[in-house]
Amino acid sequence: MLHPDWPLKEVVGTLSTTRQGGVSAAPFDGFNLACHVGDNPQAVAHNRAQLQAQVPVPIAWLEQVHGNTVILAEEKYDITQTPQADAIFTRSRQFALAIMTADCLPVLLASDDGEEIAAVHCGWRPLAADILARTIAHFRAPTSRIHAWLGPAIGPQAFEVGEEVREQFVARHQAHQNAFKAQKNGRYMADIYALATQQLKELGVQSVFAQAQCTVSNPEHFFSYRRDGRCGRMASLIWRK
């Protein structure tokens, strides 16, 4: 497990899993937490139970669809559902919010008093569709009091994209062009950490902490869809203390 290094440890709990541990067989070995990738359902259930044992409240899972829908987990939220969304927000102490990734960028958000929290799945499509702005809009705290943690994701040396991806971001904001490096083949290397950080700071979130470990280049610790195709998923979680 990875534990975010940020100044909110007294008011929120957080963790980010790796692929190590668990009971899933290859190519999902070992700590796969996703039900949709073709893994043995009993193995996934075992892994999720193992994770739940380390978290003091029930985990709220999403069916992530690379969109920009934000789910609000209020006091009467049905923890048994898995709604289609790419971000989840709460003011409740009853749930831990989970985002699954295997190259996409997990972003955890919290107000400095820990009373408002969110987990966001920031693949390039959700980022281009303003998933961060849509999530932060639910916070009552001013953005100057919101902190962000960026977890392990595909690194800028591994994230090759086409011109159409660059165009979507640059059309949104000219500053995003600095997150793309042109290649001789006409494509670009994209820095998803830079894109998310730029968007956060545009929104007024200045306190950004990154655990910038490349999932593609570290097969021992991380699943990577771009590297392996068929693979498991890690999870990043946040909950109120």
Automatic annotation (TrEMBL):
Q: Taxonomically, which superkingdom?
A: Bacteria
Q: Name the keywords, alphabetized.
A: Hydrolase, Metal-binding, Transferase, Zinc
Which Pfam family, just one, is annotated for this protein? Answer: Cu-oxidase_4
Record flagged with keyword Acyltransferase: no
Task: State the reactions this protein catalyses.
Answer: adenosine + H2O + H(+) = inosine + NH4(+); S-methyl-5'-thioadenosine + phosphate = 5-(methylsulfanyl)-alpha-D-ribose 1-phosphate + adenine; inosine + phosphate = alpha-D-ribose 1-phosphate + hypoxanthine; adenosine + phosphate = alpha-D-ribose 1-phosphate + adenine
NCBIfam families in the cross-refs: peptidoglycan editing factor PgeF
By sequence similarity, the record places it as follows: Belongs to the purine nucleoside phosphorylase YfiH/LACC1 family.
What name does this protein carry? Purine nucleoside phosphorylase
